[in-house]
Design a protein that fits this description.
2 domains; globular
Amino acid sequence: MTRPASLAVVLEGGLVQALLVQDWPAHVPLPCIAVVDYDTEGADDDEITHFLIGGKPEEAVCRSDVPEVYEHLTDALSPLAVLTALGDPPPDDDGEPPLALAQSVRQSILDLDARINQSEQPPTGDDYNHLYVLANCGLIDVLKALGDPTDFGE
């Protein structure tokens, strides 16, 4: 069954080390996340971003970043594991019906194929790996929704 996506912002010494998502739907583009630090002490002028909040001028050290997908990394922090350790597990999800899951998997594969074709360049090994992950993980979700008790080694 699919779980709601979770996000982790990993800090060390107040500095963002990583942005991670887990259980992010493969057919949904990853979000661009704005990281804002209002503590500008010691920052160079070129590191400070100026913007308005409700017409009031503000400044902060800012950056934007796209998170990394936990499932594609080895030895990475699991956002879900941290949330569970905090006693804040995601809400129960009855999951999508198997037909809807299968249709979603098919659409995500078609969407990725279309993006590969739009690049007008030969597919890379990463492209093929991404297609494999979409197909394999999607099929596992469908099998689980159909009641398959197999341990898929997740």
